[in-house]
Amino acid sequence: MILLEIRGGRLETKKSFPIQGVLDAENSEILGAFFRDYYLNASLVPPCIFIPADIQDEVIPVIDVLQEKTGFRPKIKSPKGGDKRSLLKIAEKNAELGLSERLLATHYRDQTASLKEIQEMFSLERLPHIIECYDISHFQGSQPVASGVMFVEGKPFKQGYRKYNIRGYEGINDPGMIHEVISRRLQRIINEEGVFPDLIVIDGGLTQLTKACEAAVEAGAEGIPMVGLAKKREEIFFPGENEPFIFDMNSPGMKLLRHLRDEAHRFGVSHHRSRRN
């Protein structure tokens, strides 16, 4: 909620009031309730108050009470044009910007919490600012393709998405295909002097993860943390560990990893479908 105070034709102050717990309420109800709470408790009421037209019915009873309480009745206006209407528009725009900033700040805190949890889950040296995930798609081994998606600061980074047509394998050989794709990806980063991801997630179990790690060693990039995420029970596989780990599926970190994996799968299926057509 934004309140602009005008004195002598100049904007004196802008006050911002966060509104909580009103998701199911109409805007007119929220504005009317704010008007009542604010002006019935105000030490100083201005002679004229500009409001949106749709809260006139909510405001008039408050003005009646205010007059009974103080003996003073401010003018209530809903300008349709001119400078006064512009001021209302400024207040509305400020409210929209304030909401956007709050939502962005909340989203950033949530994403940071997810990345921090992933860092702790996998004992990473740093926050995984860049995470990549790879998935294999084919129909009974025919026309196999792979997809790679990139999340930066916990959000999809479409410029970092990659499509691959598998060159070296036919039939059903997901581990071998993962080896090929990870080899190609890491070699490209090395050749272009690019930036390695902070974490690579393989859509699959221990066998796929093992082949991905072999590709990293062969490329001289064995320092990149890698894990496997198997769909059936959302199990996490670590290099060198035969038994999977199961984390809380509803934790912020796991939700982000599942989103990443599902996005890689969606992107891969889309690429495979377009190739078949």
TrEMBL record:
PROSITE patterns: UVRC
Signal peptide start and end residues: none
Gene3D superfamilies linked: UvrC, RNAse H endonuclease domain
GO annotation, biological process: SOS response
Domain UvrC family homology region profile: start-end pairs: 3-212
One GO MF term attached to the UniProt entry: excinuclease ABC activity
Pfam family name, one: UvrC_RNaseH
Protein's name according to its UniProt entry: UvrC Helix-hairpin-helix N-terminal domain protein
Source organism of this protein record: Leptospira interrogans serovar Pyrogenes str. 200701872
